[in-house]
Every structure is written in C-alpha cells, then in structure tokens.
C-alpha cells in the first residue's frame, strides 16, 4: 500500500479556519535569535520570521514591535514560518519600477558578497545585484551595516522574477554633478569633519563630495591650531569660497561666517588709545601683541625703548606677558596695527629733573662699552654715558680693562641735556682723587719708587708707590732694561695738575742714578778729606 501524502490543499483542510497558508496576519515580536525573529501571531504555536524574510536589519527589530506578516508554513507542534517581506513585495516592485523610470535613489542593504559584486535588498524586500565596480567598496572592505543609497541601472522582468542591477557610484557621480551645477561661491553648506591636519580640515559634504578648510580660514585668530576649532566627527556649517568642478575641489571657510573683528578696528583701537594685549611672538625687529582673537599689532623695536636700544627684546618682555601698548597707526585695509610699548609706559625724560640733578651720585648698570667710553642705565629708558676719561683716575686704553657689561657702578652726574636726552656721567669722581695728595706732597726732585705697569713706544708707565697714581718715564731717562713688574728708583722731573686726568708726572731713573752717583762721590770726597786731615795731625804730633 502506498503511503498517504499530504499536499497543501489537504493540509489546509485540517488547519483552523482562522489561519490559512498565505494568509496575512499581524505578529508581535517576542524575541530575537540568530537568523531571525520570534513572533506571536495568535496561532497554537509561536512563529518564526527568518532573516531573509525580514525587511530590515535584524538588530533594528525590538521586542513588542507589531509586524505585518504572511504565513508560509503552519506547524502546530514546533514553529510556523512567516514572512514580512512577501506581503509588500508586489507593492514594492511597483514602487521600484516608478523609481527606476524617474531615476530616483532608493535604499538598499547589502546582505552578502558574491562573484563580481554584492547581493542587496531594495527597501528591505526586493533582491538586486550591485556590481563591485559600482559599489564604491574595495574587495576586502567590510560590508556596511547601515543602508546605502543606490539608483537602479537595469530592471528586467524574467520568468523567474525581476532582475535588477543597481549602482552606488552612478548615484554619487550624479550628486557630484548636481552639487557643482547648483552650488556657487558664497553658498552655505553643512558637513562633517573627517580629518584634521596642520594645513587645515577635511570636511565630508555628502558621499563622494569633500571640502577643505585651510587653516587660515578656520578663525580670524591664525595662531590657534585646527584642533582648537573643530573635532573629528563634528557637524559644521561652512561657507564656499572656491569651487573647481574640473578638479572637484571645494574650498570652505568657517571664519567668514563670523563677524570680522577688523570691521570695527578703527572704532575700538583709535590712534592714541592705550590698550592691553598678550605678547605672542618676539623677533629681532620687534614683538607682536594680540589685542583680541584675530587682531594683533606690531611693536617695532624703535617703539620699545626710550633709551638703550641695544638690549635684547627678551630682556623686556616674554611670550605670554600681558602688556600695555599705545596705538600709533591703524591700517585697516592691510589689517595692520602699529603699537608703542614705550609710549604706554610714559616718557621717563619728561620729568627727569625731578629725579636727577648735576652732582648727584647714583647707581646704574653698565649696558654698553665702546672705545670712547661706557653706557650706564640709570633706569629703564634713562641712560647716561661715561667718557673714557671719566672712568678711572688712571689712564686706560680701553674701558673694557675696567668695566664689564651688566656690572653695577656708582656714577656722578656731570651734565643733563634734557632736550637731546643725554646725561654725562663719571665713575672716577665718585672715588677719592689720588692726585690731590700726590700734588700736595711731591715736588720736582722728589725721590719715589715705581713699578713698571706698561711699556709704550716712548717709555714706560709706572705705578708710584704710596700714591695711587701713574707716572711716565721717557726712554731717554731709563737706565736699566725695562720689564713689566720691575721696581725702579726715580726722581720727579715734573708734576702738574691736569683737568682731564687729575695730574701728570714725569719721572727719571737716569736722574736718580746721577744723583746717587753724586751723593756717593760727595761721600767719598768727604771721607778722603777727613782721612787726610787726621794723617796730617798724626804726622805733626810725631814730629
């Protein structure tokens, strides 16, 4: 006896009247499993909708969600199989046909990779083929989890159904073409930050269309870094400032959507106004001060100092310092401000007489040394000059023999020329004049001892013992071979006061030797005379 076989018609006779295979029902999602969702559709057993019969990605379904389903197979002992896709298939095909004719983009989800491309579901229902060359994906790229947009290139009805070919690239090309035909310089667009570099920011405007914001167009404050303005993934609004359809270049600007701080710079920073700012960079020619983001000015070196311009600017200010400056020029067209540091501090020469008078003895710092003398700073912006003749009571060839840069010294004010901003100073006049005692105690023919300090062409310079003064011994008054450090016995030939050096003294070793010889001769004669007289007496007594 042949076994009895059930066909669909016989099975449907034994199914409850309320359910039939092919029937459209409403199901409620009660769970999710690998490969599909579990639903309650009111039958004796629960139902299962396989993933390939769903119209969305599996992770998009939520427990409690209502679905419109078609019964594919009833099973009262285990699970019935249902489809969400089939009830909408016919209607979706009609919609897709219309989209194809009107060349409208449609939503697609890539479900698998196959030879030459990818299998996709259109609107979550209709199968289609996406060629690899039209996918905008590399062969080893992961399949996108989210839906993508495509346009239908081909839609043919066959005996087995519809054969549909779609393209992602064609849609992108069309969007790019539309973008460059519709957009113009000055338009405002939205985009997402995709990359940040020192040069600027890359922005995705839409799929396949990227723009670039140069660093200079991120902010009016060009000294801040791109990372301070935007973050990766941030949605931004920007202004188109350049379009090149041939190169597909889109140059954008953020700062041009902001108020330009230079528009009101003349009103905010008029000439003569003293304002505060931050030192942002220092150069040999001056330093820059930022008054506000996007507005900075230059303090030229000539506007830093009232006096000693030989200083390094780093001795006056440091990057990051908050300083007061006076606006001295505004060039709005070229976006340039010229500022003065010294004018904001005030001119120290205006009331110089309130602080310094002739014959005052004050302390200053040596700031410069030249052959003619030394510069001494009394305070910032007030500097005096010590002529070489006023450095020491001794004769010196170079001020550097006595002084060093940065050394603190006491000086006496000899002259103040306020009009020409000059002060003449003396270091030696703060010390006792050694020539006063020498001139008082020494006369021509005085005998002294001196140590050779320097040998010059015409003679030697000696330091006179017991007197902190120097004397000169001409070559024709030297007897012994000159040698530095050698001590000589000398006779003063001449000693005179001197307005510049305090005094002058001419000495002679030769005269000393001559006097010495004369003295010795006198002693010898006296001795001989004395001996002769005694001899004569003895001789006389003997007689």
Automatic annotation (TrEMBL):
A GO BP annotation: translation
Organism domain of life: Bacteria
GO molecular function: mRNA binding; structural constituent of ribosome
Pfam families: S1
GO cellular component: cytosolic small ribosomal subunit
Domain S1 motif: 22-85, 186-255, 272-342, 359-428, 445-510
Alphabetically ordered keywords of this record: Ribonucleoprotein, Ribosomal protein
Assigned protein family: Belongs to the bacterial ribosomal protein bS1 family.
Its biological purpose: Binds mRNA; thus facilitating recognition of the initiation point. It is needed to translate mRNA with a short Shine-Dalgarno (SD) purine-rich sequence.
The protein, known as: RNA binding S1 domain protein
């Amino acid at each position: 006896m042949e076994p009895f076989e059930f066909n669909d018609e016989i099975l449907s006779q034994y199914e409850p009247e309320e359910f039939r295979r092919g029937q459209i029902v409403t199901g409620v999602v009660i769970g999710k499993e690998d490969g599909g969702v579990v639903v309650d559709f009111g039958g004796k057993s629960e139902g299962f909708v396989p993933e390939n019969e769903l119209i969305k990605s599996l992770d998009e379904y939520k427990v409690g969600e209502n679905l419109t389903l078609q019964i594919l197979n009833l099973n009262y002992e285990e699970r019935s199989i249902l489809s969400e896709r089939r009830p909408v298939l016919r209607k979706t095909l009609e919609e897709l046909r219309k989209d194809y004719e009107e060349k409208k983009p449609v939503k697609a989800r890539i479900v698998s990779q196959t030879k030459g491309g990818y299998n996709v579901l259109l609107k979550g229902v209709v199968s289609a083929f996406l060629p690899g060359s039209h996918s905008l994906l590399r062969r080893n790229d992961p399949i996108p989890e989210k839906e993508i947009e495509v346009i239908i290139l081909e839609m043919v009805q066959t005996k087995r159904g519809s054969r549909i070919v779609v393209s992602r690239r064609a849609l992108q090309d069309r969007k790019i073409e539309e973008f460059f035909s519709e957009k113009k310089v000055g338009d405002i667009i939205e985009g997402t930050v995709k990359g940040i570099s020192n040069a600027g920011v890359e922005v995705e405007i839409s799929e396949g269309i990227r723009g670039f914001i140069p660093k200079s167009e991120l902010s009016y404050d060009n000294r801040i870094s791109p990372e301070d303005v935007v973050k990766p993934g941030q949605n931004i609004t920007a202004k188109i400032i350049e379009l090149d359809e041939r190169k597909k270049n889109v140059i954008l600007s953020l700062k041009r959507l902001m108020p330009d701080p230079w528009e009101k710079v003349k009103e905010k920073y008029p000439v003569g106004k003293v304002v505060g700012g931050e030192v942002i960079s220092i150069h040999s020619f001056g330093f820059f001060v930022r008054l506000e983001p996007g507005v900075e000015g230059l303090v030229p070196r000539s506007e830093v100092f009232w006096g000693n311009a030989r200083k390094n600017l780093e001795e006056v200010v440091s990057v990051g310092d908050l300083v007061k400056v006076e606006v001295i020029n505004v060039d709005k067209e070229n976006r340039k401000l010229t500022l003065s540091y010294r004018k904001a501090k005030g001119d120290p020469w205006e009331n110089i007489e309130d602080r310094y008078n002739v014959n005052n003895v004050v302390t200053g710092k040596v700031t410069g040394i030249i052959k003619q003398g030394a510069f001494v700073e009394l305070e910032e912006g007030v500097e005096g000059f010590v002529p070489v003749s006023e450095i020491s009571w001794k004769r010196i060839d170079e001020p550097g023999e006595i002084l060093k840069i940065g050394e603190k010294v006491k000086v006496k004010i000899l002259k103040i020329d306020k009009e020409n901003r000059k002060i003449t100073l003396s270091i030696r006049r703060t010390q006792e004049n050694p020539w006063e005692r020498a001139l008082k105690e020494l006369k021509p023919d005085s005998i002294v001892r001196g140590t050779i300090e320097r040998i010059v062409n015409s003679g030697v310079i000696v330091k006179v013992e017991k007197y902190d003064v120097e004397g000169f011994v001409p070559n024709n008054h030297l007897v012994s071979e000159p040698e530095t450090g050698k001590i000589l016995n000398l006779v003063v030939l001449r000693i005179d006061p001197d307005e510049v050096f305090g005094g002058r003294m001419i000495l002679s070793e030769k005269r000393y030797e001559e006097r010495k010889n004369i003295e010795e001769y006198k002693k010898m004669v006296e001795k001989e005379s004395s001996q002769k007289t005694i001899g004569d007496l003895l001789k006389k007594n003997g007689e």
